[in-house]
Amino acid sequence: MKNILIGALALFTVFQANAKQLSGYVYALDKKKKVPLEGAAILELGQPNGTLTDGNGFFEIDLNTNTTQIVVSYVSFISDTINIADKVAIEIILKPMAGTLGVVELNKRRRTYGIRSLDPRTTLHLREQEFQKAACCNLSESFENAPAIDVSFTDAVTGTKQIKMLGLDGVYTSITREFMPSVRGLNSFYGLSFIPAAWVEGIQITKGAGSVVNGFESMSGQINIEMKKPYGRDQFMFDQFISESGRSETDVMVRRDLSKHVATSLFGRFGIRPTEMDRNNDGFLDNPTSNQYQLMNRWQFHGDNGLEGQFNVSYNKDEKTAGQFGSENPNPYNVLIDNEQLDVWAKLGKAFKDKPYKSFGSQYAFNTISSQIVYGNDSNQNVLTTKGQTAYVNLMFQSIIRNTNHGYKTGISFISDWVEESFDTFNVDRQEMVPGAYFEYTMKPDSLWILVSGARMDYSNLFGFFPTFRFHGKRNSKDEKTALRFSIGNGRRTPNFFAQNQNLLISSKPVVLNTKAGETMGVIQESSLNMGISLQQKFKLSYMPSEVQFDFFRTTFYNELLSNRETQTLVLESLQNGTIANSAQAQLDVQPARRTELRFAYRLFDVTSVYDGNRVEKPLISKHRGFFNITQRTRSKWQFSSTLQLYGPQRIPGLDFAAENFNAQYSPVFPLLNAQVSKRFKKKPFEVYIGVENLLNYKQDNPILGASNPFGSNFDATSVWGPVFGRMLYAGFRYRVRIEEEKK
Which partner from 25, 320, 396, 585 sits 20 to 30 angstroms from 36, CA to CA? Predict the structure, then answer.
């Protein structure tokens, strides 16, 4: 690391002596709205030096110190010569040539999946069309085509899906909505299922430690969710989904421009699953019956002076009934789930038109959630009750030091949690307030290097002061076809003992809380260090763009909440120097033809922790996973997509861990094949689709242990390593009324 920094400073010194850097954006106007021009050419006047804009219309160019003019050009637009003088950033708007309609038409189809070359972090970008390839009614089901994320059922009763990243549970991934905390705390277990996929515009998945600007909780990665904006292209949306399991989901959105400065949108969702199904004949519903209602209202405004903002409010009500059913069970074991959530969030910012590198922003969020889950029946039951509120404020400022080679972001933040958890005889309450300050510095020694270092200091009323450090770097090759990225950073979070482990309560095991001296019952702080490296190589296959990626990440925990279910009790305990997670992945994306996309990936996991004094593999994590996706489009707007995944062996928990007796048992290797066909009509804003999940109908035998006697000592529904339901058919349609149909 020392040699890298010395080399970077040397390059920076040489660069400053011979060149200056200019950055900016190139736009066109479409009905008074700015549209980014991708592929616009920026040339240094009188010199053979130039660059192209990216998908956001952004460019950076290294210029001779004597250069005072650049030439900007784009097909069907009038080229413009710009005087730059001492400017370091600029915004350019091109005018269409006479005789054209003034409408921006891009001949290059925008990618729906990939890592942006300018991003110093290993961040995967997914557009809406990517997660529409699968049966994704909510975000917990939207990552089937993203090899970086594992999706699995938490248990064999509630039908809840959760994600894993880098071999770690989703609670260790910072999940934000437009870079504000969203799925966290008491909301972490069901939170992704509360976000309808039809409401989402795009997703960014960052492996490893995230930016300090977004907080201290990113431990294995960050998932940022971009919702559809009031100023978006969809004027009206109606989505309908129905499946063989009896599940029906309806999503509606209406947006309106109230003036040239103000727009609003209203979203609604109604989901229902009234059908009771038991395909494996174990007396338990394969999926719960359920009702879900959700509303969201968004407001967005912008002023001529650069002031802009948002205000949003969302309400969700979710009810589920799972467990035994039928007349042969007069006293059934049920799991009754009742969740209610209210979200309010807002943004307010100021951009400086003459200085596009400079801005001030503020974020505000408030969340309240209450949940009650009943396990058992009236005569023999346990009840988990959780209540909580979260308040969040983040004030940030960004600018440059001398020129755009040196940029920074700084600010202060505040987050507070009021949490109440009650289960059986346990009551765990927490009131935590964490103010903090941060600074992130970005250095670009030349056009090939980007180095980002960040630090923050936070103070918790429960744990005192604690620092967070993050470092990211990227080195491009001169032809910009090869990118090497590396990162290191620590993270912390306060876990919720019962809320994040509620699936483990669907068993007959008694719960034990083990706390160490000096710890408050149920209140600990987890801490970890993550480091990683990735290599991205772009190439041409014939004339089509392709790329291969390799990455390795290691996460080491110094303190954590461990769920030990290896004996006849469920032990929740604080563990020091426990889990170590290694993740290695190789991925190949190929376009053998214009409308054909192939994606291959293979990942290896080595995740261990300490149980009863012995370091062994963590349970229910695949040792390896193979992935293959093919998508074929036609000129007539048909799309065929299939995804085959091969899951490696997973250790099954609950064995004798005495060193002389330990004999791990593993699940078998199994395939999972999904397929979908969709048709989009050319002259109508209408798309229909039909698909099948688990086409090969692979199912885990006896996923519920002791199903015939759920009140006995051997009942356990938590050791789920494979599909429970089997093959499932689904169908639906999407109707969009847009300002302008997307050019393909």
Answer: 396
**CA proximity to 628, closest of 649, 597, 668, 592:** 597
CATH topology of domain 19-94: Immunoglobulin-like (2.60.40)
- CA angle 442/448/450 to nearest 5° reads 15
- The angle subtended at Cα 428 by Cα 422 and Cα 433, nearest 5°, is 130
Look at the alpha carbons of 128, 131, 133, 139 in this order and tell me if their dihedral is positive or negative. negative
DSSP three-state, residue 656:
coil
Distance of CA 604 to the CA centre of its chain: 21
Q: Does domain 225-252+263-738 have CATH number 3.60.20.10?
A: no
CA distances from 273 to 144, 159, 162, 286, 319 (A): 22, 12, 19, 12, 10
Give CA–CA dist 350/360, Å, rounded.
Answer: 5
Distance CA 171, CA 193 (A): 14
Tokens linked to 486:
């590396």
* Dist. CA 457–CA 414, nearest whole Å: 12
- Residue 194's SS3 state is helix
DSSP 3-state of 437 = strand
- Cα dihedral 159→223→648→609 (10° resolution): -100
The reported pLDDT for the residue numbered 486 is 95
Per-residue confidence (pLDDT) for residue 742, from 0 to 100: 40
Q: Which pLDDT tens digit goes with each residue over 14-40?
A: 334 345 678 788 888 876 677 888 778
Average pLDDT on 90-107 reads: 63
Residue 637 has φ and ψ, to the nearest 5°, of 70, 25
**Cα–Cα distance measured from residue 428 to residue 81, given in angstroms and rounded to the nearest whole number:** 66
Question: Which helix (H) or strand (E) covers residue 16, if one does?
Answer: helix 2-18
Pairing of strands 19-30, 89-94: parallel
Asked whether 384 and 498 are in contact (CB, 8 A), the reply is yes
- The proportion of the chain whose per-residue pLDDT surpasses 90, expressed as a percent, equals 56
Residue 342: count other Cβ atoms within 10 Å of its Cβ.
Answer: 15
Task: Give the number of other CB atoms < 10 A from CB of residue 3.
Answer: 7
For the ranges 37-51, 157-171, 354-368, the lowest mean pLDDT is seen at 37-51
- Cα dihedral 131, 201, 129, 729, rounded to 10, equals 40
Sorted by where each begins, the domain ranges of the chain are: 19-94, 113-224, 225-252+263-738
CA dihedral over 280, 500, 555, 182, signed as positive or negative: positive
Instruction: Indicate the pLDDT class of residue 456, thresholds 50, 70 and 90.
Output: very high
For residue 9, count other CB atoms closer than 10 A to its CB. Answer: 12
Distance CA 534, CA 539 (A): 17
The CATH classification number of 113-224 equals 2.170.130.10
Residues 401, 408: contact at Cβ < 8 Å?
yes
User: What whole-number distance in Å separates Cα of residue 407 and Cα of residue 443?
Assistant: 7
- Indicate the SS3 state at residue 188: coil
- Secondary structure of 632-649 in HEC code, one letter for each residue: EECCCCEEEEEEEEEECC
